[in-house]
């Protein structure tokens, strides 16, 4: 049965790609916008974009693992004539290094990378008239993207993923729903505390401190002064956690919870699914204090030699078929609500809270630390480098 579903989904993908390109024809034929006219060679109508894309014939992408999966890149290549060459990276640092060292047309940027690319003017804003899929994406995701003064976005949201509190059911009561299970009770469970090896974990510690230490004056988990960052660092340090290597295979990261060595930690919905599939007695909750998360953006290089292939790609990855496939593969809430009608699991979008905007109100998506720490000009923010240094110190002093 599932084999039949997969064949039907693949056929639907091909049909919907044609529908997406047809919708783009209507949008582009009326003139589009002008915000991306500085991209040399970008067509002004869909017919022209398609013709030029066939001449370009290639697309260089820097992506997270699986973001250019053959199940959706192959239909795209057949329909557009644009061969996709994807270079996969596992961490934000690796992504930035790849962007610095090589030629690329597009990137599936994390929040930290996206902010830096915009700040350094390495990416071009999107002309949304040439990306029809953009208009139907979840409004909260569209509203959260950095924009030009004219209101055009710098990226195409691909989905949203929360970080969840992982709990072994044989170590915590069923009604546990607070970060206290990690940051307080975790001290008696050493070495059963497992955290991702990522400085952004400090933001989760900050959310707990914001709820329990009002004297610290924390407002935004990514805008910290030096004392606030130090308080978060101390909170992590006293756990003496084990760190799951950044970018490690999910199977390897799950081993600790499967064999009983892991009792509490932080993980994503895909990791929860894997743990439960492997028989680990775990459950996951969004803590009552709120949590962090990720919403990656597909972005376009200002120096791309293949703007037409990339514009077709951006519209394609926002289509219902690709969004549904990505939701099932990564257990990320799709950015396009229409994807919920195409998933093999009819309950997937409900499980992922894809259409429940209220559920996401206290999920703080990753971004570059800093910017503004209050009205006092002398109250300087801790920078991303400060966060990285604090995390490096934690790893040395475990």
| Overall average residue pLDDT | 87
Order of helices and strands: HHEHEHEHEHEEEHEHHEHEHEEEHHEHEH
Question: What is the CATH class name of the largest domain?
Answer: Alpha Beta
Rg calculated over all Cα atoms: 22 Å
What is the CATH fold-level name of the largest domain? D-Maltodextrin-Binding Protein, domain 2
Query: What would you say the CATH architecture of the largest domain is?
Result: 3-Layer(aba) Sandwich
Note the main sheet.
6 strands, mixed
Low-pLDDT segments: 1-34
Question: Which percent bin holds the helix content?
Answer: 25-40%
Strand content: 5-15%
Q: Which outline best applies?
A: globular
Which structural category fits the helices and strands?
alpha/beta
- Count the beta strands: 15
Number of helices: 15
Gap between N and C termini = 50 Å
Query: How many structural domains does the protein architecture include?
Result: 2
